[in-house]
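Pilot study result, target chain (70 residues):
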Amino acid sequence: LSGLAATFTDTGHPLPVLVECDTGMGRCGVQSPAEAVALAKVIDQARGLTFGGLMTYPAAGRAAEAEAWL
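Predicted structure:
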């Protein structure tokens, strides 16, 4: 991430970055809420980046599990 952050150094126009969360599909993204928080903090502290929020692709029929994870 630090190499990517060096590319976006315009602090007046930071790049919003989303943290993808694996809430049950087993595809990609951080695997736990703690990992999401840790990555969000890294993004927030990186020059030229800003934490833009969380994203997920919940498993079909398991929206309650995704909500609980988030």
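One observation from the pilot: The chain has a mean pLDDT of 87. A full batch analysis is planned for the follow-on phase.
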